[in-house]
Amino acid sequence: MNDSGFALFDTAIGVCGIGWGDRGIRFLQLPEAGERATRARIRRRFSDLEESEPPAQVSQVIAAIVALLRGEKTDLTGVGLDMRDVPDFNRRVYDVARSIPAGETLTYGDVAKRLGDPTAARAVGQALGQNPFAIIVPCHRVLGADRKPGGFSAGGGVKTKLKILSIEKARIGGSRDLFDLV
After folding, report:
1. Helix or strand holding residue 24 (H, E)
2. Domain boundaries, the chain
3. Does the annotation count 16 as an active-site position?
4. How far, in Å, CA of 64 to CA of 58, rounded?
5. Which pairs from 31-37 meet CB under 8 Å and 24+ separation?
6. Over 80: is that where the pLDDT of 12 sits?
7. Which class in CATH covers the domain with range 88-180?
8. pLDDT at position 146, please?
9. Residue 33 CB neighbour total at 10 angstroms
10. From the candidates 28, 124, 137, 139, which is the catalytic residue?
11. Quick one: fold of 5-68?
């Protein structure tokens, strides 16, 4: 990707935004209260980007995100992300999160164990709360120790997290649905 910019696009959960640059996807913005609010948030956070038509590679990523949020099994692990401003620990957390398939979940503690530090669950939660690539780095698939939803810093908070998990038909094991516990 040689140019940079951002675009808004419709999904089953509302209008999302995506930003790109020469090193890959810079961010994925989940819906705010409406299209205007989503656009305003992007402009506040990424004042260097202009709204424009996405290049072909970004259009493919958008199509995959739209499909995922329609409930289709979609693999976003190959999407190139611009992580130049992402701390090393967060990168490691995001790598683990990206390995969680749609419809499955881990706990913050599970992620910490996979990183080799079972005491790092709180730090994992903080890293996921700073995730600029929501959906592509599926932080919504990481739950609290009690298998409750835990936090979610995107617009709509935990309600948005549960909506995405519901679209993905997430299970916590056996026949119990995650939403029976909320």
Report:
1. strand 24-29
2. 5-68, 88-180
3. no
4. 10
5. 31/155, 31/156, 31/160, 32/155, 33/155, 35/8, 37/155
6. yes
7. mainly alpha
8. 79
9. 12
10. 139
11. Double Stranded RNA Binding Domain (3.30.160)
